[in-house]
Specification:
- With about 525 residues, this protein is an alpha+beta fold.
- The protein is built from 14 helices and 25 strands.
- The strands form 5 sheets. An 8-stranded mixed beta sheet has the order 6-5-4-3-2-1-13-14, with no helix packed on it. The protein has a 6-stranded mixed beta sheet with strand order 7-8-9-10-11-12, covered by helices on one side.
- The chain is globular, with a radius of gyration of 23 Å.
Length: about 525
């Protein structure tokens, strides 16, 4: 089996029975804030895109690059389609010209021509990607690969059942806006960032230990930030609170916990994998490349500046009545929302500026009033959440009829945020679901989730607790850590006060727990 690194979470897997291209991403994503790093735009994509199979793990735009898929990937390729609750991924791929689809069943092995075997595990909670994330398992001639990318399964049991895995590809770096965009004192932002960075690595070590693959490939990040207003997010300033460590940092941290089997794939790196070995060649020495990271970034920044400028020129649509358009789009969804609206529990305010981010002058303030089921001008009241961003960005979202503001505005990091109280997952879940199909699915999922009874227990120190985390069902016998009276689920970092059962991280999600009898 031959694995060619093609950047970020993308790779091409070649076997004697066929080739699979995974998650090709080249063009900037999220309002031109994210770029692949190392740069992969100079690869021979005409050749790389001539494949038998295409796998797009989910709809995040650093995995689903519509422009690149349309231009460079063969429309003769059969799409390996995850089993998602909505048809959006398939619909968008069909619009790009793909016609052949293998609609997989989650956790079910499918045997293709020539003895090539694949299995896709789909995650389908409203907080997994844009309603869906997935992992791809591949086997040919006794060699097995798991491309986990940035999916977060509660465990890897199903993959272990299929036999020893020889190569494990997984995310290790940040892919979020927290805590950088929050209006916090610098010391607090650094402390929260360090916690998140450490938690990312802890989660990665647990997945690696679960699978015990022969070789581990850090993929799916980090992106780089080439716009001057976002440049500080690159991990080149010695900031221990930066959540975007790169592959060289991964190798150093992995070594601290005894990891010696890590392999970095630069764009153009090729690993020849067997059941006994992995031989890798690189276009340039890996250590040398990352030693000159800032120089590479500065060169990219200069080269990509016209791309960013062209993107920005397309965002302004002053003819759009933002308040009227938001009312038309959001108010019918508020009327239909039960769980998410109750979960938000208060008004959310958007301060819109005259710039392309939070630094300009506020020109309009709009409230999405969840209890009142309306969108209206801000009336100087207290709000649960406040977002500050460029009016042009909201204009553009309305112009392109974007139904997922998380997979666009929030991941762009072109905003600032403030909140009263705990993190509230329902705020972000709702703004992923600005369409009838997504909203109905998410409401149904929360309905089923809230009514679920957790019967099985596990013992953690002096406490007996329900085995599955109330957040996203992680197995607390593996991911749970108790410190005094506080339980932390390390899969997503959620915390619970055990004596009361109260979630300390977000609204709702009470846990069942009691002191173990002595």
């Amino acid at each position: 089996m031959r694995i060619t690194g093609t950047g970020h979470a993308s790779m091409r897997i070649d076997t004697a029975a066929g080739s699979i291209l995974c998650d090709p991403w080249v063009n900037p994503a999220y309002f031109a804030s994210w770029f692949p790093f190392p740069d992969n735009s100079l690869l021979d994509w005409e050749t790389l895109g001539d494949v038998d199979y295409l796998y797009v793990s989910h709809l995040h735009r650093d995995h689903f690059d519509a422009e690149h898929l349309k231009r460079f990937v063969s429309k003769k390729a059969t799409v390996l389609l995850p089993e998602y609750p909505t048809s959006q991924l398939e619909d968008e791929l069909r619009e790009l010209g793909f016609k052949s689809f293998l609609k997989t069943k989650s956790d079910e092995v499918h045997e293709l021509d020539g003895g090539l075997k694949v299995m896709i595990q789909a995650l389908i909670s409203p907080t997994d990607g844009p309603i869906g994330d997935s992992s791809l398992w591949v086997e040919h001639d006794g060699v097995r690969v798991l491309n986990q990318n940035d999916a977060r399964p509660t465990d890897l049991t199903r993959f272990n059942e299929l036999g020893h895995v020889h190569a494990h590809m997984l995310q290790f770096s940040g892919a979020i806006w927290y805590p950088m965009v929050y209006e916090l004192p610098e010391a607090a932002r650094t402390a929260f960032g360090k916690q998140k960075r450490d938690r990312q690595f802890d989660r990665t070590w647990r997945y690696i230990d679960d699978l015990k693959a022969d070789h581990v490939f850090p993929i799916a990040g980090p992106p780089c930030f080439l716009d001057d207003t976002l440049w500080q997010f690159n991990d080149i300033f010695g900031d221990e609170g930066n959540i975007f460590p790169d592959q060289s940092v991964f190798l150093a941290e992995y070594a601290k916990v005894g990891g010696t089997n890590g392999i970095v794939l630069l764009p153009g790196s090729v690993t020849t994998l067997s059941d006994k070995s992995a031989e890798t060649t690189h276009p340039v020495p890996v250590d040398e490349f990352f030693a000159n990271k800032q120089q590479h970034l500065e060169e990219m920044r200069e080269r990509k500046a016209p791309v960013i400028a062209a993107e920005k020129a397309s965002w302004r649509h002053p003819e759009i009545d933002v308040l009227g358009a938001m009312k038309k789009r959001i108010e019918p969804l508020l009327e239909e929302s039960l769980y998410m609206a109750q979960g938000v529990g208060g008004p959310v305010r958007f301060d819109l500026t005259d710039s392309f981010g939070p630094d300009g002058e506020i020109v309009e303030s709009i409230v999405v009033d969840f209890p009142g089921k309306q969108v209206r001008p801000y009336a100087d009241e207290k709000v649960r959440y406040r977002f500050k961003t460029g009016r042009a960005l909201i204009e553009h979202l309305i112009h392109i009829d974007e139904g997922d503001w998380v997979n666009s505005l929030f991941l762009s990091c072109r905003f600032s945020a403030a909140r009263i109280g705990q993190y509230n997952e329902y705020v972000y879940a709702f703004f992923k679901c600005l369409s009838e199909e997504r909203l109905q699915y998410a409401e149904g999922w929360y309905d089923e989730h809230e009514k679920a009874v957790e019967a099985e227990d596990t013992v953690l120190g002096e406490w007996t607790v329900q085995r599955r985390c109330p957040h996203l069902k992680a197995d607390l016998s593996r991911f749970g850590i108790v410190d005094g009276n506080v339980l932390t689920c390390q899969l997503h970092g959620w915390k619970f006060d055990l004596p009361s059962g109260r979630c300390l991280t977000s609204v709702g999600h009470k846990i069942r727990a009691e002191k173990t009898a002595e």
